[in-house]
Specification:
Length: 369
């Protein structure tokens, strides 16, 4: 099978196709992780995006049935330099090709991902179309059609991507009468966030992104966690439905925001967000903690950030990215509310920041800092 990747600037790359035979579209983004392709593919934060790995060899330890961050592949397509067809790992149950085929997701290999990464860093994320095909050829007419298709493509963040990955109804996970009761506002949560809470004996009440305050109050939780997720935090649906809920509950419960949840918390307190040129996606982002003056290595996956200058006086910035000084952590000066832009649950990635779950549960037990 052959494949072609077409970018909105007219660039066309032809390579080998794998996975499903289809045409798909999305925003092309890159992840710098050397491992974790299964976790990345199944991360709901990649909804609406075509995922490219910068590490050149992908698939060498196969796919298992344990490490998914959601029940299915969330990325619209997959781009790699070289695909491994003979994985070696005791837990491997499928090859990368079989995994994509089973879920009708297209992939392309044998193209210059280094060039694409440099292009993305220079020009920012680009809309793209990925086509895999076994019959015919990419003639002049078809090339023109694909270029026209990508140029007419609606930017993914204009859609309500969160609604596509959030749970439809409340779910109670790991009911435990003796542990903390945590409401998880699901904006596209990674399973490892739930695993970390369950590991700490929490009852987790997973609720839709557009849940109303009264629905949360019925459960009388000890705290609320706002999860990661895809898209623009200032999407009209989020501004209309999620932000007011967070604003209203901020004085009632301890709040902890992760990634998109961090951005939503910022919006709830009056700050603004903006789109980064090419985002932060990988497992080696350095974050300086301004409280203890230490640098933590973190796992990240986001395309938007909080505008530091817009943060109100009652919000204290307590963490910044060493590479570009973007806001990585915030804390309210008087309320039990804090958030991080990075992923303390990692998966894969460093464990430097897992202590944040313990910090949150300690806050939940005291109801104050």
């Amino acid at each position: 099978m052959k494949a072609a990747l077409v970018l909105e600037d007219g660039t066309i790359l032809e390579g080998s196709g794998f996975g499903a035979e289809k045409t798909t579209s999305g925003e092309l983004v890159f992840n710098t992780g050397m491992t974790g392709y299964q976790e990345a593919l199944t991360d709901p934060s990649y909804n609406g995006q075509i995922l490219m790995m910068t590490y050149p060899l992908i698939g060498n330890y196969g796919i298992n049935f344990e490490d998914g961050e959601s029940p299915k592949i969330q990325a619209e397509g997959f781009v790699v330099r070289q695909k491994c067809d003979r994985p070696q790992h005791r837990l491997a149950r499928q090859t990368l090709d079989e995994f994509l085929k089973s879920q009708s997701v297209a992939g392309i290999a044998d193209i210059d991902t280094r060039m694409l990464t440099i292009k993305t860093r220079q020009h920012g994320t680009l809309r793209s179309v990925l086509k895999t095909y076994s019959n015919g050829s990419l003639n002049k007419k078809e090339r023109a059609r694909l270029v026209n298709l990508v140029k007419r493509m609606r930017p993914p963040e204009k859609n309500n991507l969160v609604a596509e990955v959030s749970t439809a109804k409340a779910q109670i996970i790991n009911q435990n009468k003796h542990g903390p009761k945590i409401v998880l506002i699901d904006c596209g949560v990674k399973e490892n966030i739930i695993r970390e809470l369950v590991l700490r004996h929490c009852t987790v009440i997973r609720m839709p992104y557009n849940v109303r305050p009264a629905q949360i109050n019925k459960f009388k939780p000890d705290g609320i966690l706002i999860s990661n997720g895809p898209g623009d935090p200032s999407h009209p649906a989020i501004i209309k439905q999620t932000v007011p809920t967070i604003r209203r509950l901020a004085k009632q419960y301890p709040l902890f925001g992760i990634c998109l949840g961090h951005q939503i918390l910022a919006l709830a307190f009056g700050a603004r967000t903006y789109k980064l040129k090419f985002g932060h996606r990988g497992a080696n982002q350095p974050v300086k903690n301004l409280e203890d003056n230490k640098v933590y290595i973190t796992s990240q996956n986001h395309g938007f950030a909080v505008n530091a200058a817009s943060c109100p006086a009652d919000i204290r910035i307590i963490g910044v990215n060493v590479n570009d000084e973007t806001v990585e952590a915030m804390q309210h000066k008087s309320l039990p509310v804090f958030s991080v832009q990075y992923h303390p649950e990692a998966a894969p990635g460093p464990w430097d920041s897992k202590y944040l779950f313990d910090k949150f549960l300690k806050v939940c037990s005291k109801k104050h800092f």
